[in-house]
Amino acid sequence: xETHDSTLRxxxxxxxxxxxxxxxxxxxxxxQLANILHTRGFKITIIxxxxxxxxPSNSPHFTFKSIKDRFSAIADQLPTNxxxxxxxxxxxxSCVDPFRDCLAGLLAEERxxxxxxxxxxxxxxxxxxDLKICRIVLRTSSxxxxxxxxxLPFFSKKAxxxxxxxx
Length: 167
What we know:
The N and C termini lie far apart (about 65 Å). The radius of gyration is 18 Å and the shape is globular. The chain contains 6 helices and 5 strands; from the N terminus they run H-E-H-E-E-H-H-E-H-E-H. By secondary structure, the protein is an alpha/beta fold.
């Protein structure tokens, strides 16, 4: 019969890779999850975009791997372009190959239990499938945010929800 201690020891040889979107409301919950998993005996690697990257000195018990995101090419548009879908689409297009290359390199080095990605990185499922690794999705928004995203397009099409620039 396996004891809790032997189970914990067997998981210490397992690594979990986390990949948050480069925005504070996404990085912080991912790092909180990483801390919880680390206390359960997992080794943690954080793959992160260059833009708004986390400070590795705040979490010296994690391994950090930066990938090119080319976000600096459009970052100056942030104050004038409020369309968050534009930035998500850009990151999903520009991070595919760097993420795949980084993840493949990590898989070649060591056994990995799974990769946990932000829900906004929708390309990550295809990469995980190609590399034959389990992917878990972390959704960092609240239930209210999820419901709002679901119903706003419906109300816009029905012409019953208008926002002006003053709103």
